[in-house]
Amino acid sequence: MEIKAEAENLLKLFERVVPVISWGEFGGGGQIYTLPVVVEMMLLQRLSEHGTQQEAVHALLGGRLDRLLPNSKRVQGGRISANTGGYARACGRISPETVEQVCDQTLAALSDQIEAEAKWGRPVLLLDGSSVRLEHTADILKAFPAGRNQHGLGHWGIMKWVCLHDVRTGIAQRPAWGPMYGPEAVSEQNLAKKVLSRAPAGSVIIGDGGFGIFAFAQEVIGSGHQALFRLSKARALSLGGKSLPAQGEFLVCWKPSAQERKKYPELADAEIKGRLIVRSAKGFRDSLYLFTTLEQEADEIVALYGERWNLELDLRTLKGTLRLEHLHGKSQAAVEKELLIAVVAYGLVRAFMATAARRAGVDPRILSFTQAYGLINAMSPKLCSPNPVLRQQTYDRLLDYISKAKLPQRKKKRSYPREVWGRGKSFPSKHHFGPLPKTKSK
Asked: Rounded CA gap, 363 and 259, in Å?
């Protein structure tokens, strides 16, 4: 991982990435809430403890965005309203397409500053999908219908999304999303095809068994990437033979099944040459079946696939620490912008962690995201100070603290069992109440 240039702080990064554009160019008006100001406030809102609009407005009033504010009479006179109405309306005027551009520009700037770890001369990206719960509004349910089970129709809208994260730094590409249920429901494989177009040329794409199908593997190879996918046992037996040993490596020529040829006629004559690796790996209930087009040693391939677990931790962090488990926007556009801003915020924290790890000579993955997130949030006021000496001192101290915020390495097993508790988000049963009964006056 090579550090080309270190961002002094979040605001400096946004000054380079987001141009100072007036609202007039976006069909709106306003002297304070320009595009950079609103995007930065959305970012600070996502990085704050409670994530409220009031916290973002307080950050604006506290001077944390002074460098981005226009030179207007209201700003000079200190007459910025403390109410959230103006900020809320400004957020609504930004289109999801504009936030997508901001997301792509910011992540590209991060990639320009911090080159992703290139294993065997290639970027290595982890691929997976997840879901997020949405509010119960007519617009949301139309775009992202609720699921249904044996108890009936659910209450919350559900969005499915797929992402690509760098194996070492954890910095993400812009995700792809769609409805998880309903007539327009999309599969993870179709969403994954969209994010493939944003992967650096010649990347290694690592996916679990959900992506280990011929049609998607062909898409990866056709896009100029290398593939490393886990296969189901049935697919591995079909590819390598009816009796596979517990350990082994085989040269194979993967061709679509009869069902796949029927579903994808254009793939009827396609084939992929690669290797099938079988291992009895620790941590896996059954044997591990891997298909890859890489040429490295089998043990290195198996070890690399083991790092796919990092993406599971990344998704947990996004849904927990950055509150992506339940988005509270009341419209399709609002939740899409929330998701994009969360990915930008996540990438910025990961960039600080990668910079701190580089300075300390350690692996970024051993550092605690939650601690880095808290430190950045706590020190950001001083990072925005007009005093350049104080800014630089705070920046250096922040990186030093982040480099020491290492994840615990437990040598012994826990003394208590780990259990999963519900999060208390279930919607109560419906109750219809009629008018209150009349009472006789005494």
From this structure: 44
Let me know: does 11 contact 384? Beta carbons within 8 Å: yes
Q: Where in the chain is the domain with CATH 3.90.350.10?
A: 117-322
Contact predicate 286/305, CB 8 Å: no
Per-range mean pLDDT, top range of 67-76, 134-143, 250-259: 134-143
Chain centroid offset of residue 394 CA: 28
For every residue of 326-365, DSSP letters joined together read B---SSHHHHHHHHHHHHHHHHHHHHHHHHHHHHHTS-GG
Cα separation, 193 vs 195, whole angstroms: 6
32 or 206, greater pLDDT: 206
Task: Provide the CB-side half-sphere exposure for 279 (13 A, CA).
Answer: 17
Residue 356 is which amino acid?
A
The Cα angle at residue 51 between residues 47 and 57, in degrees rounded to 5: 95
Entry pTM: 0.86
Helices and strands in the chain: count of H runs, count of E runs: 16, 11
> Which one of 1.10.3720.10, 3.30.300.20, 3.20.20.140, 3.90.350.10 gives the CATH number of domain 117-322?
3.90.350.10
Please write the tens of the pLDDT for every residue from 271-330: 999 999 998 866 566 689 999 999 999 999 999 999 999 999 999 999 999 999 999 999
